[in-house]
From TrEMBL:
Residues 63-95 are annotated as: Disordered. It comes from the Bacteria. Residues 82-95 have a biased composition (Polar residues). InterPro entries: Uncharacterised_RAQPRD. This is Raqprd family integrative conjugative element protein.
Amino acid sequence: MPVLAADTTSEHARLAALVRQLDSLDRLAERGAVLPRLEGSRYHFDHARLREDLQRVRAGIQDYLTPPRAQPRDTVELSGDYRQSSPPSDQEAPQ
């Protein structure tokens, strides 16, 4: 079955919409990064790592939409692990 120009246009439109959604997620992660952490919380969400992965996904889609000439692809994997342990506070240290 031949690929129609309309199919390509539709795919580009969907991918452009996905990039806009990634931009929205990135803004939310940026705002979340400046919120105070909960006291006594053992883990917290690593917003910076999420933003790095969002940027990598966004760049991959944009590279597809406007491919560079014969450039090698970045093969770095996404982190996917967004939970970090909080260091114990002075109060929790054994005495």
